[in-house]
Design a protein that fits this description.
The chain is α/β, with parallel strands linked by helices. Helix content is about 40%, strand content about 15%. The longest helix has 20 residues, at about 285-305.
Length: about 300
Amino acid sequence: MTRPVLLLSSLHAGTQQELESTWQVHRYHEAADKPALLASLADTCEVVVTSGGRGCEAALMKALPKLKLVSCFGVGVDAIDLGHAKANGIAVTNTPDVLTDDVADLAVALMLASLRQVVAADRWVRDGSWVKRGGLPLTTAVAKRRVGIVGLGRIGQAIAQRCASFGTEIAYHGPNRKPVDWAYYADPVEMARWADVVIAACPGGAATKGIVSRAVLEALGPTGHFVNIARGSVVDQPAMVELLASGALGGAGLDVFDDEPNVPQALIDIPRVVLQPHHASGTHDTRTAMGRLTLDNVAAYFAGRPLLTQV
Ligand code: 8YV
C-alpha cells in the first residue's frame, strides 16, 4: 500500500479498483497541477501504469528519475517511447496473447460486415427500405475472396486461421517471411494488387507508419475492401477517405483511426463503411485478462520477481 504508482489514464474498472486498493495510486490524468504531481513523486515513483492509447512519453519518464517500470494495459506499445525507456533501464510490459482471439474475431467481423454490408442491411430493415424498395442490393461473397494480411504476428496468424475456415485464399506481407504455407509478398502494393481484402494487423509506430499507402489502396481498387484493427497510423487516412468517397476503394471496416476518438466527418458520411470505436479487445473476458497481466507485472516488479511479459 505504501508504494506509489502513477496512473496515466483511466483503466478497465475492475483493474483500476484492484490497482488502487493495492498500491498508492496517483491519477495523473485527473491531476489539476500535473507538474506539481510529478515533482512530488520524483524521489519515490518507480512504476507507471498506462494504456496502449495513452502510452508514455519521454518527458514524463524524465520527470520521474526513479522510474523502473511502465506497465501497459494493451499489447500495442507504439505510444510509449521505447528508445528512451531502453536507454534508461526502464522495463516496459504489455498484455500480449490474452487479446489475440478477440482482436482477430473483430477483424473477421469487420471483413464480413464490409463484404456483406451487415450494418447497411440492418439500416435497410429499420428504415423501412425493405418494405418500400425491396431487397438489399447484392453484396460480395466471402468464400471466394483473396485476403492479404499486413503483419503476420500473433493477431495476424489468428486472423489467417479464421479466414482459412471461410475458404478464402490467404497471403501476407511483413518485414520477414514466416514458416507458414501462406504466400509471402515483400511488397504490400503487389499483395494489394492480388488481394480482394487487405487486413492491417501489424504494430503501430515509425516502422509501419503509412504502410497501407495510397498506392496500396489504389491497387486494392473499387472492388477491394480494407480492414484495420491495428492502428490509425498504419494507413494513409486522408487518401483512404478520399478513395472511399470517390468509389476508387470499394469498402472498409475500421476499428482504429488517427486522432481517436475523432473520426473524419467525410468517413462518417460514407454509409457503406463500417466504423467501430477501437474496441477489438473490448470484452469483459479479455479486458479482465489484460488487467490481470497489467496488475501482475506491477506486483512482480515490487516483489522483485521476473516480469510476466516484456517488450
Ligand atoms: C486497447 C489495443 O484498446 O492492446 C492494444 O494495443 O489497442 C487495445 O487492446 C487499448 O490498449 C486499451 O487502451
